[in-house]
Every structure is written in C-alpha cells, then in structure tokens.
C-alpha cells in the first residue's frame, strides 16, 4: 500500500498479486468534495503506479 497527501488530495494505492502473476491495483483519489476510484490489472510494479500520481 502507498499513501500520498498533497494539496488537499489524498491518494491511496492498494496492490494485490493475482495467481496469473499479474498485479491488481486499486487507486483511490480523495478530495474535499470528490472521490475517484481506478482499478488497474496488468504486469505493473508499484514504481509504475507511482508515475500515475505525479503531475
């Protein structure tokens, strides 16, 4: 799991390893008045996922 707090936005990434060797990630972006949830499955590392959280 990875957590980021930046300018009122909270980002949490959960990782689950699947039997196929792929990873499943659930990315939650929580703002003051909104919530975004993104599910990604594939051959990705946590380092790859971190790139999605950087502007």
Characterize the structure shown.
The protein is mainly beta and 55 residues long. The chain has one domain (2-53). The chain has 1 helix and 4 strands; from the N terminus they run ββββα. It has one helix at residues 46-50; strands at residues 2-6, 9-17, 23-30, 35-42. A 4-stranded antiparallel β-sheet has the order 1-2-3-4, with no helix packed on it. Strand 2 and strand 3 (23-30) form a beta hairpin. The radius of gyration is 12 Å and the shape is elongated. The model has no long low-confidence stretch (mean pLDDT 83).
Major sheet: order of its strands?
A: 1-2-3-4
Largest sheet, strands/sense/barrel = 4 strands, antiparallel
General shape: elongated
What structural class do helix, strand and pairing data support?
Answer: mainly beta
What order do the SSEs take from the amino end to the carboxyl end, as H and E?
EEEEH
| Number of discrete helical segments | 1
Helix coverage percent of residues? under 10%
Into how many domains do the coordinates divide?
A: 1
Radius of gyration (CA) equals: 12 Å
**Total beta strands:** 4
Instruction: Kindly estimate the percentage of residues that lie in beta strands according to DSSP.
Output: over 45%
| Mean pLDDT over all positions | 83
Give the N-to-C terminal Cα separation: 20 Å
Low-confidence stretches: none
Descriptive key words:
mainly beta; four-stranded antiparallel beta sheet; about 55 residues; 1 helix; elongated
């Amino acid at each position: 799991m990875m957590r980021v707090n930046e300018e009122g936005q909270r980002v949490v990434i959960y990782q689950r390893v699947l039997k196929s060797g792929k990873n499943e990630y659930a990315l939650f972006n929580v703002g003051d008045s909104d919530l975004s949830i993104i599910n990604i499955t594939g051959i990705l590392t946590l380092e790859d996922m971190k790139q999605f959280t950087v502007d």
